[in-house]
Structure to design on (184 residues):
């Protein structure tokens, strides 16, 4: 699937949320993305390796946008406070990636807003299934996935420095938000 130019900086309208705006990634967000994700990793005692396992974050344009995916930022007063991305697996399935929110922003529906935004992106491009893999320690994210109808389908060990256990989640994109995913 070719990249959708509407997700390029300046090509899409920002979505407003109660505290900030969801906007497409632009190079000016690079430092903020590393700050948000690094903060969450430290919070959970996980190893953050932008020069290694997490090197996708040093080339968001090439690793996400050029591959037909998207990468969105939640900004509040110009500060990056959250992230979410998606990448196609094939014409029918996309993977939600990099759903992170600073700790002081949680509990306000912002994580849900980020996830709903990327799922709307996926539906608009004709994907019928979304999957996500999430570190077993990120229980708040798991609750957000489940509230939006994702169901847990598996477990794996990541090839990161911590050999992190991750849970898989799947959602049929034709299901209404909050409905259980169909067995696909």
């Amino acid at each position: 699937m070719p990249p959708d130019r509407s997700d390029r900086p300046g090509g899409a309208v920002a979505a407003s949320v109660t505290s900030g705006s969801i906007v497409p990634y632009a190079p000016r967000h690079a430092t903020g993305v590393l700050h948000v994700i690094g903060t969450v990793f430290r919070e959970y005692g996980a190893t953050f390796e932008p020069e290694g396992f997490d090197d996708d974050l040093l080339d968001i344009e090439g690793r996400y946008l050029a591959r037909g995916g998207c990468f969105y930022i939640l900004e509040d007063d110009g500060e990056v406070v959250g992230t979410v991305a998606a990448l196609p697996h094939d014409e029918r399935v996309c993977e939600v990636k990099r759903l992170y929110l600073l700790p002081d922003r949680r509990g306000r529906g912002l994580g849900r807003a980020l996830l709903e935004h990327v799922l709307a992106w996926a539906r608009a491009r004709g994907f019928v299934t979304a999957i996500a893999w999430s570190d077993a320690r990120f229980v708040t994210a798991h609750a957000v996935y489940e509230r939006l109808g994702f169901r847990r389908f598996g477990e794996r060990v990541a090839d990161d420095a911590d050999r992190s256990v991750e849970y898989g989640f799947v959602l049929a994109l034709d299901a209404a938000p909050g409905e259980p995913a169909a067995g696909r």
Q: What stands out?
A: Residues 5-172 form a domain with the Aminopeptidase fold (CATH 3.40.630.30). The chain has one domain: 5-172. The first helix runs from residue 30 to 43. The radius of gyration is 15 Å.
